[in-house]
Fold these 4 entries.
Entry 1:
Amino acid sequence: MGKRIVLVGAGSAVFGYNSVLDAVNLPGLNGSNLILHDIDEVRLASMANLALIMNEETGANLEIEETTDREEALDGADFVILSISLDRMRRWRMDWEIPFKHGIKQVIGENGGPGGLFHTMRMVPPVLKVCHDMELFCPNALLLNYTNPVPRVGLAINRYTTIRTVGLCHEVEQQMKRIAPIIGVPTQLLDATSAGLNHFSWFTELSLKDGEDAYPLLEKGLRNVKGFQPLCRALYKKFGLYPSTDDNHVGEYLAYAWESCHPEDRGLNWIDRMETEGEEAWVKMTRLREGRDKLDVKGKLSGEGAMRIIEGIITNSGHTEMQVNLSNEGQLSNLLPDAVVETPAVVNRSGVHPMHVGFLPPGLAALCNIQILVQGLVVDAAVNGDVKKAMQATLADPVVQDNIAAEKAFRELFEAHRDLLPQFSQELNR
């Protein structure tokens, strides 16, 4: 019998669909046991139905199950892939709107700033519940996490559970697609090494597949194009390496990002776009499931890394993943130890092994280490329900420029999200 792979949050039209797409098309996963789990029965049933159709079309011979019972899903799992959210879009709007009302200009307020703080404090408790269930029902399983904020969630898992975890994202690959036309080559001809923190990383190497340095080509291309990634360009000019993520992601951690980012990529414009894309993905999935659109999935892959990593472990592939988030054990020498950092990694039968990248330039290391210290405060506050540390994390965040505005925003956010912050037993002092 094949490996038992569990998708927690499988009802997502993006995460669920992409995971199933990869599972049915990667040869090394043929015959695996794929367990779809979600607390939303309607969405889970829809995804499970589509998964059965995809399995049949591709001949993947997967054994597919669905369950709303998490303990049943996790029992005996070899791999768990996690992507969950709580009332995501409505809460995200609060995370952005409330600080903005008080003069705090977060670019998108998802992973950094006061919004990122409250996002973390909402997501850490349910993630740790999954991990504690894993400790009981599948203690040796590998957890592959997509739940944002990825480094903060990963740090909470590392500090407060015994579960092995790797955080995943596709932002580096997306940035390579964005800069390839500027360089003047197809994305397939680009190679790179990216390092830093998730959504706060840089290309330490950028080359063509034949080994030619692509940085001169990028610099030439940037001179000939206007309006492209103004924040990334400014950082490149001052710090010497180009960010391996887009303006509005890297900008979540910088005090000066708001004015540099294009209006369509910040604030409610971005949040509305994300909501629309999610709704469109669900409509597309529904049409495929109902046979109104042609299902053409054989041989297709999503580009996400989780199933590829699982196949690599099963088959002892030895392949390199461009970005994984793991505890810093020296792969980035001048970033703080034990922080969750993002680097390439090699995948083989014994697991996911981060590659040694070395030193980031001192200025970039300083930016990253500030965030690492903030993340530590955020995670401890999120796990222990520590209001004092949560406020300290707010005031330590570079995005916050006014302590009075910060306290007002903090109090209002705390009350707005109080129903999803069960770890905080105490009330705010008046």
Entry 2:
Amino acid sequence: MKQKSWHLDRRTLLKSMGVTMALPWLECMSWGANKPVARKRFFGGFFAYGVPMPADDAPDRLENGWFPVGTGKNYVTPEMHKSIMPMRDKITFLSGLSHPSMRTTSAHKGADYFLTGANILKTYDKQTISIDQHVAQTLGQDTRFQSMVLSSFGGVNRPYRSSTLSFDRAGRPIPALNNPAEIFRRMFGASTADERNALASRGSVIDEILSEAKDLNRRLGASDQRKMDEYLSSVREVEKMTERAVQWQGTPKAKVDAKSLDLSVNVTAPREYLTAMYDLMALAFQTDTTRVASFQTACEEGGLTDRFPSALGLGNSSHKLSHEKKNYGDVAKYIAFLNEMHANFIKKLDSIQEGNSTLLDNTLCFYGCATSKTHRATNYPIILSGGKNMGFQHGTHLNYSDNVPLSNLFVTISNQLSQPTEKFADSTADITEVLG
């Protein structure tokens, strides 16, 4: 087909702009076979301390409960899901799933095993890779950042109180970012001279460490060699990250106007803060800065993040609210607030066009908690959304017996988004009901 004067070739436009951001799909790009390829993306989100669960015959079941009433397409949702129900045909509620090895845990370890399914009941040494990092090994090969790891608390906190959802191939926690201004700067801001110098120095230090360790390893006993191998694995991970950062140094970052973002917010203003964090993830996906993100809205014993209910004028901490056994009104308001923040993120993704689809159609969003009630590590509350172009179909409530591992869903996610696999953590099969 002959190109007309008003037709744009996407590669030519990218070259002329001198940037590598993913341009929004324009009608004038559809003139020939050179159409944009849909990129697969994954989001994993978590909130702490479980959900209110009035008895099925309680008068406030639909007012204050979390889990839908009924299954299949004819389910009814409690009031706290009002914000996301305009997206009913693009979401799926799942109940009854859990990680079998962790069902007897104290349940404050939720973030540590939510995306990994690892058996860390007695020892943290058995921690394994999280599903976001598993798919990032495939989806993150062509982006500046292999993944984006965020939480409202930041860092890694400590074992069994992690403030990160993401764990690498060796089961090591990946530090989460929590400062909106710093996140924006890393994604879209100019690199400083100090950062470039530090990157060069880091490469030299790593080379020296690996050289000395190789010589030392020859003189160690078997036990010490195993420990050294674990250490060297960590060093090599840093080496790969450094090489990746160096390779991207010469590639301009996406140009994004920050005027619509309030990057000065922090956790003392929960509504504004969570909005900014979700907006940053949407921008990261839209500009193809990354294709994988995880976000822990608040962690167990997370300092000021435990005070998020103050956004609604509620006096108690989220932890104290979660232990309410009779009057679920306040905790229901708080969870409804978190649901609203997540719903706004889903709606935003769905408002961004990509070809004949939306960003949500190309993004699978997995969101929930690792407890039902605050200390009951079974029957996780889960919402799955998006991913239409990856084969996911929605509009139902799927209720499983508690014998079904959540990792079965992770097998399906891996098969649809990245590498075909028959096993992830404690999985026993896959879950096909979420597919079209």
Entry 3:
Amino acid sequence: MNAKIKPLSNYVLIEPVGLKQQTESGIFLPDASDKDRPEQGKVVAVGPGKTDKSGQAQNMSVKTGDIVLFTKYGPHEIKIDGKEYLIAREDDVLAIIE
């Protein structure tokens, strides 16, 4: 990624990760065959976190490099340097995949 993107507040920049699907006969289906939006991705950048009433930033639960599971239609699609990314609120991230 050439452009330097720093999400604000509790936003997370995610690179979608497509899951390879295999049919029962062993044929791998390309990502393009799946019309649904991805629900899994790699965290590329993280904002500083929401600020509480005292003005302190709350720690984010995710960090750069985490593989996360997120809500299907929560994140917004954006394009940076010709590559597609998703930007989501931390609340849209459901789990970290270990």
Entry 4:
Amino acid sequence: MNKNLKAPDTDFLFEAVLTLKTVDECYNFFEDLCTAAEIKEFSRRFAVAKKLSDKKSYTEIISETGLSTATISRVNTCLKYGAGGYVLALERTKKD
């Protein structure tokens, strides 16, 4: 966990996110909280994490997403050396 992020306001935000129960509730909350561009960027990064975990190449990911190698590399670094958030979320969202 990044100690620089730890703060009462951040705790309050994350506690609020944990109260959301449906995808529609998440859409409503995040639409109020973020710009459409921010939500799309978060979504693209998580999609890149999924593609990397599925062993897709950078070339394939660039072709499918249009994202830069810098963004893909940053996500890959987080997957390998980050706090484990991507890995945990990907494991929990796996569809059989």
